[in-house]
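Data availability (excerpt). The following record was deposited with the supplementary files.
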Amino acid sequence: MPHPHDDFAAYAQTGWPRLVTTAHLLAGDPREAPELLRKALVGVCARWRRIPRDDVDFYVRRSLVKEHLRRARRRRTPPHEELRALSARQRAVLVMLHWEGLSETETAQLLGCSAGAVRSRARRGLARCGGDAERLRGLFAEAADGVVPSAAPLGAMQQRGRTLRRRRAAAVAAVCTLLLAPAAVFATDRIMGDGGADESGATVVGMASSPVRIVAPGERVDAVPGVQVWLTADGRHWSTPQLPNRFRGLTEDGAGGGKPGVTAQPEPVDSAYFLSGVYHGLSADPALVEVTVDDSRITGSVLTLAGSPGWGVWYARAPMSVAELKASYGEGGGPTVTVYDAAGKVVARSGADG
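Predicted structure:
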């Protein structure tokens, strides 16, 4: 079998000249571009095993933009005379739209903002550059002509990427250890019959908690192997090996109607099911999201945006095959999702159809 980093090396070596040019247009400084790209590719290398191969360009562009914005807070105005009026975000939007050729929607996903915000930044940025898109592309082409790419530092990037991956794995293992402890207590309480939640919303004794993660708009999370989830103000996005870059708006998930609720959406991934949905309109923050399929109970994980937006996404992996879940639907079953608050009371529950 080939080494798992072999295709990263091929991608980085082939794409280095093109990516250095993009990094130069973002940074505005040919001396800074190789280091900007190197830092971005190190992060990509660390996650390489989990990145869908048809999504690599998205990850690289996103890493480049994030590193550009991080550095922009520490550096002075880029030296290119005719582009120095642009803010760091305006520059990123214009480079993605007019150099990389992305659409407004793709650029919005990249920056973790709405398409409207991209249009606004592009309009203001073009105005600062004379208001002519063709002239801007000419300025980009002129700046790109002066870029002479060096050789890609493959060895250093791969070594640093492996080190970063090991550190992240150790951190994840430590967090999982902390999360499994209350789950074990919860399981023991259920076995001993010390308590539980009934349909009226009674308090759950010894209740476990769902892992809750606050994310930035567009920040991608590896939900289960092969599936990534990310949020924007408009709704939830997810990618599976079969269907990458999918989107479901808040109105489609029932949010915005004023009523509390939670949706459930199963979809096949490999030989099992990935379960996910949106909670909205709750009277309190969710502490536990529990998914019941037939006699199986699964604790879901929760993602939400900062600032208490009033909704969030839960997800879990069903411990059954595709055929088994289809059979449960045929018998009038399917997943039921129950959301508890910190006091152990039911604040939302889905039906079989979400």
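Summary of structural features: The longest helix spans residues 154-192.
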